[in-house]
């Protein structure tokens, strides 16, 4: 390693290069115990302190996708023997983006990037989630129309959404909100019981090529595309969790 001091400081995520220069000018930065000067360079094993405190290295962002099988719980509580964290057994700390019911299966994201989590989950940002659902009895036109146009639940009415019948007891639905157990509750309101529920897409990411129980890292292109999609998303207020 051989980089400028201000770049080294900014790459830890502590502050911008410009602010780093300001700290250096104010005599608040030391390198190996000596007061730093603008233009100093940092080499491997150098000790850089600001106000006498060591800089913490910025943790590299991790973005994973899992094809969650039934029986795994989307919780970081390690006391739960079916928790998703132990199931994936990743080398560093990650957490799920939203949730899928224990009995549901399909696509879920995991990351250590809190900013992107908030932006994806915020209800007003209208990010699509697509599901294939099987019910306990034959689906009718009336059922499809009511699901499309909104169902009263949890003190509100679900947003209008895309719903398409794909078999006698199977339909596809695309949601832009994530109320608690939304699809199951919508079906129950019409006297239907969900017998299987699988999320097949979140935003631009699909389950294609990912076997049940397997996970993989996002590709560089996928990360760039998701970042572009959430670029103008607010990360505060009006949050809903990305459940089904």
TrEMBL record:
Superkingdom in the source lineage: Bacteria
Molecular function via GO: 23S rRNA pseudouridine(2604) synthase activity; RNA binding
RNA-binding S4 domain location: 3-60
One biological process term in Gene Ontology: enzyme-directed rRNA pseudouridine synthesis
EC number assigned by the record: 5.4.99.-
Keyword RNA-binding: yes
Record field: catalytic activity: uridine(2604) in 23S rRNA = pseudouridine(2604) in 23S rRNA; uridine(35) in tRNA(Tyr) = pseudouridine(35) in tRNA(Tyr)
Keywords from the named record: Isomerase, RNA-binding
Membership in a protein family: Belongs to the pseudouridine synthase RsuA family.
Protein name (database record): Pseudouridine synthase
Lineage: Bacteria, Pseudomonadati, Bacteroidota, Chitinophagia, Chitinophagales
């Amino acid at each position: 390693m051989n980089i400028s001091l201000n770049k080294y400081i900014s790459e830890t995520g502590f502050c911008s290069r410009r602010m780093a220069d300001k700290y250096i000018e104010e005599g608040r930065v030391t390198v190996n115990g000596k007061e730093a000067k603008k233009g100093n360079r940092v080499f491997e094993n150098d000790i850089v302190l600001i106000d006498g405190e060591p800089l913490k290295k910025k943790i590299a962002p991790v973005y994973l996708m899992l094809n969650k099988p039934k029986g795994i719980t989307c919780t970081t509580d390690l006391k739960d023997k079916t928790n998703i964290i132990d199931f994936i057994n990743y080398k560093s700390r990650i957490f799920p983006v939203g949730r899928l019911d224990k009995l549901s299966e399909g696509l879920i994201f995991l990351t250590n990037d809190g900013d992107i989590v908030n932006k994806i989950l915020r209800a007003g940002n209208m990010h699509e989630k697509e599901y294939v659902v099987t019910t306990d009895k034959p689906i009718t036109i009336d059922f499809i129309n009511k699901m499309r146009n909104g169902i009263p639940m949890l003190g509100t009415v679900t947003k209008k959404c895309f719903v398409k019948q794909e078999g006698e007891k199977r339909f596809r639905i695309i949601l832009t909100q994530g109320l608690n157990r939304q699809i199951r509750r919508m079906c129950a309101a019409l006297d239907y019981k969900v017998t299987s529920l699988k999320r097949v897409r979140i935003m631009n990411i699909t389950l294609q090529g990912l076997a049940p129980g397997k996970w993989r890292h996002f590709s560089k292109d996928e990360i760039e595309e998701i970042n572009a999609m959430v670029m103008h998303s607010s990360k505060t207020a009006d949050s809903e969790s990305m459940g089904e």
